[in-house]
Amino acid sequence: MSCLTVERCGAITFHRSEQNATQVRMLADGRLKTGHAGLLLVERRGSYPLTDLQILKTSAQQGAVESGTKRKVKRLLSFQRYCHASRLLRGLMPRNPGSLHLLDDDYLGQAAHMLSKLDTWNFDMFLFDRLTNGNSLVTLMCHLFSVYGLIQHFHLDMVKLHRFLGMVQEDYHSQNPYHNAVHAADVTQAMYCYLKETRLVEHFRPLDLFLGLMAAAAHDVDHPGVNQPFLIKTRHHLASLYQNTSVLESHHWRSTVGMLRESGLLSHLPPDMSQEIEQQLGSLILATDISRQNEFLLTFREHLDNQDLDLQLASHRHFILQISLKCADVCNPCRVWELSRQWSERVCEEFFRQGDLERKCDLEISPLCDQQADSVPAIQMGFISYIVEPLFDEWRRFTEPSPLSQAMMGHLHKNKAHWSRLRYAHTPSDTQSHTQAEQPELERDNGGEEGEDIP
Q: Is the pLDDT of residue 40 over 70?
């Protein structure tokens, strides 16, 4: 099929040539019209046609990316996935909330026991995902919506809620080592811990809780496993669509809005309220763009220095939700070493896969993606020093006195010392003597001792 046009109410149209989307537009939504000042472009779930990137080729003459004759498309439109790549057709059971009944009582009992300790910082999301048969995100979100009474407060339809959460979980790429549904569940669990902080719990309202949990669950939905610079230099249609600015975050947000509308989860709410929820979800998800780190960090620090944060104001609560989500998204170095190390190795594996692909395609290898030059300890040391530590230093200021913040910072320091030792252990002997003097004082202060479990 060389050209395919798909029309669906409230979804999008694709004009596709060899599965490349060149145009996206809304259909059958009276509130969204061409030329409307408040136009919100929405992407339907599964709309990201991620190519089998191993066949990408570059043309020195045209400077474009071509597709090979044996091109395979791993991410198709929803109806194509279910018709051509259905797990049922391949003899596998579906990964959705309905498959939970396949688990025996022992597994369900262990999963329920873990949920009773969901607010502990050493929560093992890898184990929880196994106990829930790969449904950690759906199970977690349903539990949290019940805990906070959000289903009753917003009069949500349970069938629509399960449908929406199933869409979100399914549209995370399970083949990604890091950006997958388990990462989304882990970020959501961290967000839950932050929402329970004493400084916040008395001020956040049901809408704040709803937005915070929804944004955490969907903040990386349909992530392709490559970063924005890769999409830009391969001239991907999403990079053009979003003008090379917050490309992935914009896609995550608008995909989420598409799923909200397709599931009808908010269809019973007044149009202005549902639109406001969509916009605030966008503001939260876009805040996870790492290129905006300094922007948010400086604003946060200024508020703390001036002591002018007023959580009675909706705008200030929303800003703290943005900071909370940013913290939850990069909190892996603040976990216990056993969990933190797994997440670090996973994200670096994803980086290195991109670097290997870029090398095969004669593309410039992106920073941190060259496993021949970069190491996991070196990457983690830089990430902790320049991204995580500055952010969590301010978060500790904001939440103090907070046992959770103190515990996170303790783990962060010990994990940094771990990576420092691993980094210098792999340093060539002819340079080790020169660099050993530059090892952080932190390593010597901690003495390599393991941190205690955090309640």
A: no
